[in-house]
Automatic annotation (TrEMBL):
Its main location: membrane. Its cofactor is FAD. Residues 36-470 form the FAD-dependent oxidoreductase 2 FAD-binding domain. Its EC number is 1.3.5.1. This is succinate dehydrogenase. It comes from Nonlabens spongiae. One of its GO terms (molecular function) is flavin adenine dinucleotide binding. It comes from the Bacteria. Belongs to the FAD-dependent oxidoreductase 2 family. FRD/SDH subfamily. Pfam families: FAD_binding_2, Succ_DH_flav_C. It is found in: Cell membrane. Signal peptide: none annotated. GO terms for cellular component: plasma membrane.
Length: 667
């Protein structure tokens, strides 16, 4: 049994990372060129890690299932990236970013990792500016900032509503440079199917060429898993349809513990579900909550009339509107954290105040922002007697400059013009805070196997604050992993090249082929999507925004039965020896069917509410999350079992020496 040693350095919180870097083992530059590293996933975390490791001199192989790293799901991030530079002079600091992140995660994060994240955040911005990332700038040329949920300062750097795309292009350019130098060997359209462990150490992977169907062996001295999160276990989520848990789960099957699987983030600002035809949901950036006000009708009869098409929300007078976040959380208003905003929207819709045909939507309204910005624009341009129409027109231009591509995207999807009528939004599955358990060095419980970005569990606790995903991905890839991986690789300089003709590689390939054959041998009654949709409904209805013991137990039973039916009756047409997208999907859904049951088991085991994990049995009189710090201040790290309900729980106790554990309040 692996020992959960987090390897957190001793010493004051603010000195831990510096002291650690000063004392860990290093690899001589001349030796780095004799060491091979595999990076699985080429989004922000994987792409930045691969580029930096290659720049340091390591030989790197990258693997991604897309045709280019530029198509990684990191590209979909809209709102921004946090950094504690205090450009606004509003009191920000490394400690405040650290504290906001710990509090936002409902005190279920590891202190040392979160402080390190805050500490290196400023370096990320400098790095990206040097790469040419076109961050928004103020009139004087300085980088601009905006606010996100759960904080009282402006620390989010952004590039309109396409921050992820611009940051990914920066990482991709750095990666391309190393490809051209011959230090990175890219394997695009390849999917990792297994981790190869030799003498207890990660020594390579088994991958499938998604064009030819060929099964390949790849050896290395270390493997980095940077393959993103598992939100698609719900089928409907804001993730790209290809996003999956395969690399992380296959690593879990080989001995890496999986931590906090039930910590899944529900994003409050998504375009509502419109019908059963949908295969994914669309995120509207949290940055919109800076200027948009969220509301529902005060009267049920108004909500019913709106749902029936007899009234329009835009025509409802101000006194008949319930700005429920501003009412319930006056200090933070519309910028409460995502879990709080999501549950509040669900509560209003469950009570009968929803505003679309399904009753599962609330309004996000920019009318007040049009007028507020328009007045400023009119005055600064010398028009002191502007009419209301002129003011609103000027305000719309300001909003268009800040969020124009988001407004266009919303109109293209819904055919509603958000400049004229309020947006309709509803919560949806977004990010996963759980993932592979890692220590302070980002190493899993399998020596030589590391995990970065959303693939690991380390920084966000039970709820991720907005604009922190890009921060963690780039922090891990640019500034953490390149240091810490050397501590492990310093003992590998005499190992020599890793051969792939060993019994361990032979056995791993044999098991991979057998699994593919089993997938292809189903009786063919139902498609892969049939099972994925059924799993998604179980997960959303019983493991979604709120959970209870009875539903979680039912979910475990239903998922187990669905998994058994999947292996018996799934239909995977075609051949495994050529391009076969249904086979790709089948392998991913097979892993989701195991993960889903472990997810429910983890949620059932944690008898408290915290962050995105909301157990109905554990809530305050006001309906807020009720933590149990005496019994559940730990990380749940699960050891693999082929029957997920029999997985063994290991605990990493969370020690808080620098913050006081207390009930979160955003009032």
């Amino acid at each position: 049994m692996a020992v959960l040693d987090s390897k957190v350095p001793k010493g004051p919180l603010s000195d831990k990372w510096t002291l650690h870097k000063n004392t860990i083992n290093l690899v001589n530059p001349a030796n780095k060129r004799n060491i091979d590293v595999i990076v699985v996933g080429t989004g922000l975390a994987g792409g930045s890690a691969a580029a930096t490791l290659a720049e340091l001199g390591y030989n790197v192989k990258t693997f991604c299932y897309n045709d280019s790293p530029r198509r990684a799901h990191s590209i979909a991030a809209q709102g921004g990236i946090n950094a504690a530079k205090n450009y606004q002079g509003d009191g920000d600091s490394d400690y405040r970013l650290f504290y906001d992140t710990i509090k936002g995660g409902d005190y279920r994060s590891r202190e040392a990792n979160v402080y390190r994240l805050a500490e290196v955040s400023s370096n990320i911005i400098d790095q990206c500016v040097a790469q040419g990332v076109p961050f928004a700038r103020e009139y004087g040329g300085l980088l601009d900032n905006r606010s996100f949920g759960g904080v009282l300062v402006s620390r989010t750097f952004y590039a309109a509503g396409q921050t992820g795309q611009q940051l990914l292009l920066g990482a991709y350019s750095a990666l391309n440079r190393q490809i051209n130098r011959g230090k990175v060997q890219p394997f695009n359209r390849h999917e990792m199917l297994d981790l190869v462990v030799v003498d207890g150490k990660a020594r390579g992977i088994i991958a499938r060429n998604l064009i030819t169907g060929e099964i390949e062996r790849h050896g290395a001295h270390a493997v980095v898993i940077a393959s993103g999160g598992y939100g698609n276990v719900f089928f409907l989520s804001t993730n790209a349809m290809g996003s999956n848990v395969m690399a992380a789960w296959r690593t879990h099957r080989r001995g890496a513990f999986f931590a906090n699987p039930c910590y899944t983030q529900i994003h409050p600002t998504c375009i509502p579900v419109s019908g059963e035809h949908q295969s994914k949901l669309t995120l509207m950036s949290e940055s919109l909550r800076n200027d948009g006000r969220i509301w529902v009708p005060k009267k049920k009869e108004d909500a019913e009339a709106i749902r029936a098409g007899k009234k329009r929300g835009v025509d409802l007078p101000e006194e008949d509107r319930d700005y429920y976040l501003e009412r319930r959380y006056p200090a933070f208003g519309n910028l409460v954290p995502r879990d709080v905003a999501s549950r509040a929207a669900k509560e209003r819709c469950d009570a009968g105040y929803g505003v679309n045909k399904t009753g599962q939507a609330v309004y996000l309204d920019f009318a007040e922002a049009f007028e507020r910005y328009g007045k400023v624009e009119a005055l600064t341009s010398g028009n002191k007697n502007a009419s209301k129409e002129e003011i609103i027109a000027l305000g719309k231009k300001v909003i268009e400059k800040k969020y124009g591509n988001l407004f266009d995207m919303y109109q293209n999807i819904t055919d509603d013009n958000p400049y004229e009528v309020p947006m309709k939004i509803f919560p949806a599955v977004h990010y996963t805070m759980g993932g592979l358990w890692v220590d302070y060095n980002l190493q899993t419980t399998v020596p030589g196997c590391f995990a970065a970005g959303e693939a690991n569990f380390s920084d966000h606790g039970a709820n991720r604050l907005g604009a922190s995903a890009l921060m963690q991905g780039l922090a891990d890839g640019y500034f953490v992993l390149p240091y810490t991986i050397g501590d492990y690789l310093a003992d590998e300089i005499r190992t020599g090249p890793i051969p792939t003709d060993t019994p361990e590689f032979e056995q791993a390939e044999k098991e991979t082929r057998a699994r593919i054959e089993k997938l292809m041998s189903g009786e063919g009654k139902h498609s892969v999507d049939y099972y994925h949709k059924k799993l998604g409904l179980i997960m959303w209805n019983k493991c979604g925004m709120s959970r209870n013991a009875q539903d979680l137990q039912k979910a475990m039973d239903e998922i187990k039965a669905l998994r058994e039916d999947f292996w018996q009756n799934v239909r995977v047409p075609g051949s495994p020896d050529t391009k076969n997208q249904e086979l790709e999907k089948a392998g991913r859904v097979a892993d989701f069917l195991e993960l889903g049951e472990l997810f429910a088991k983890d949620a059932l085991t944690r008898n408290e509410s915290c962050g995105g994990h909301f157990r109905e049995e554990y809530q305050t009189e006001e309906g807020e999350a009720l933590r149990d710090d005496e019994n559940f201040t730990f990380v749940s790290a699960w050891e693999y079992n082929e029957n997920p309900r029999d997985a063994k729980l290991h605990k990493e106790d969370l020690v808080f020496e620098n913050v006081e554990l207390k009930t979160r309040s955003y009032k």
